[in-house]
Predict the structure.
Amino acid sequence: MIHQKFNSLLKTKWLGQNLCYEECVDSTNKVAKQLGVKNAPNGLVVLAEEQNAGKGRLGRGWFSPKGKGLWFSVLFRPKFVPEEAPKCTLMAAAAVAKAINKICGVDAKIKWPNDILLNNKKLVGILSEMNAEYGKLNFVVIGIGINTNVDKSDFPDDVKDIAISLHTEATKEFGRELLLAEILQELEIKIEQAEKEGFENIFQEWRQMTCTLNKDVKVIAQDETYFGRAIDIDAGGMLIVERKDGKRVKVVAGDVSIRSVN
Ligand code: BTN
C-alpha cells in the first residue's frame, strides 16, 4: 500500500483519517478492538499487509497472505443503541459491494448477511464486532477482507473452489489505494445516513445488490438444519425465510450459515 497515494485519494471527513498501517498483525479486528478500549479516535482504520491469525465468522479463520488483499478494520463510535449494531454488518456489505462494482467494473453480489460474491464465489468476508455495556454502544469494529490479488493456487485447499480474487475478474484497472479510499467514502456516507435517518434506505440498496432473496436456501443453525425460501430482510436486517410448511421464521445473522440450493 502506498501511503501518499492513499492519502491523496481519500475524500472522507473522518473515516480513515487516522490510519494504523502494519506489515503483519495477528488480526486487524483484534488490534482495532485493543485500540478501541484505549480511546482510539472515531474512524480509525487498521490496515495490514498480512494477517497471521485472520478471523472469520463462526470461529473460522481468514486466509490473508502478504500484499495480496485488503485486510483492514474500521472502528467507529456511532450514536446507535447496541441493538442496532448488527445492522452495521449489512450496511458495510452494501458500501463495499457498491465501491467494488464501481471501481473494478464487476457485478459483485451480497449473500445475506454480508458475504460478497463474484461469479458465486467468495470475494469478500466481513466480520463485525462491538464493544457495549448496559445499553451503551462504545464502538463498532467492522473487519473487511477483500481478495484482490490472491492467485487460485495460493488459496488453501478447503477454500480453493469457493473463493475468488479481483485481479482475474476486474474489467477496469484499479489500485488497492483507490479501492480502499472509495470503500471508506461509501461507508462514511452510509454511517452518517444511518445516524440521521435510520437504516431503511441503506437496506433498500442492500436488497438491490443481494443474490439471496427469492432463492431456496438451506439454513444451518446450531441445533437444526432446514430448507426454505428467502423472502426478505426485516427492519433489523434479519432474514425472513418461508419454510416448506409455509411458516415464516426469522434468521439472526451470526448464528447460522445459509447455502443457496439452486
Ligand atoms: C468471514 O468469515 O466471511 C469474515 C472474514 C473477515 C475477514 C477480515 S480480514 C480483516 C479483518 N481482520 C480479521 O481478523 N478478520 C477481518
User: Anything to note?
Assistant: The CA atoms of residues 49 and 67 lie 5 Å apart. The longest helix spans residues 176-197. The radius of gyration is 18 Å. The longest strand covers residues 121-133.
